[in-house]
Amino acid sequence: MKRSIAATLLLGALLLPGLTPIWSADPVEKPRNSPRYSFRRNHDPNGIGKFYMGREIAQVMGFPGAPWLERDTREEEERLTLLVRSLKLKPGMVVADIGAGSGVISMLVAEQITPDGKVMAVDIQQEMLDRLKKRCEAVGIKNVVPVKGAIKSPNLEPGSVDLIIMVDVYHEFEFPYEMTQELAKALKPGGRIAWVEYRLEDPTVPIKLVHKMSEAQVKLEASQAECGLKFAETIGVLPRQHIVIFERPAEESK
């Protein structure tokens, strides 16, 4: 099977040492006045030199990588249908897919929550949202809503979402603390957030280190008191990734 130039570049950026994506954002974040983040000149070439709670933030995968997200081998490698099945979706749910890219996960979820459910497909790249919209239209999926996010906010209404999923994206957030707070606000009481990240604990997972996260690191970052989230479970059914679930506690009855 022939692979596009963009897909080849992305695959190399994720798997091969020393190759940096040509579409990455400026690795120098300004101003540097946040006590939550630290910066290092000597760092992983695939990271941005910015650290949060001991973890280096990875470079963002840009729009030229969309074909890699849609690769034919992804189901075999990541078991996306099993991932979606593990999320306990129900018809009528409102699900936010953060870092939705070209919509691979959003479209799978959309099929499971019909007829009245909807997917809020959030991405900071308009090119990705445009591609997602065209792909949904091509197969007649009408319950996926593209949402233009920002680096510190998903731009979702407070208390509007039953489930938030982040598939291989959280580790690229430039402002993970601020984003997690905003994501938590978007949840309904009892709502859940699923961190899906390549397992750092497993050296056989063929992804670069800054694109992996350990279960312990996910729990550490998601458990910040200001976010008001509570660990629920880790689902370990996927061949390469954790599914780490946190929830917003349901409001107590008055």
Note the main attributes of this structure.
254 residues, alpha/beta, Rossmann fold, eight-stranded mixed beta sheet, three-stranded antiparallel beta sheet, 8 helices, 27% helix, disordered N terminus
- End-to-end gap: 61 Å
The description of the largest β-sheet is: 8 strands, mixed
CATH superfamily of the domain at 72-247: Vaccinia Virus protein VP39
Radius of gyration: 17 Å
- The level of helicity is 25-40%
Strand tally: 11
Please identify, by name, the CATH architecture of the domain at 72-247. Answer: 3-Layer(aba) Sandwich
Average pLDDT, rounded to a whole number, is 87
Would you give the CATH topology of the domain at 72-247?
A: Rossmann fold
The DSSP helix count reads 8
Order of helices and strands: HEEEHHHEHEHEEHEEHEE
Shape category: globular
Oligomer: single chain
Q: Which ranges are low-confidence, i.e. pLDDT below 50, for 5 or more consecutive residues?
A: 1-13, 15-31
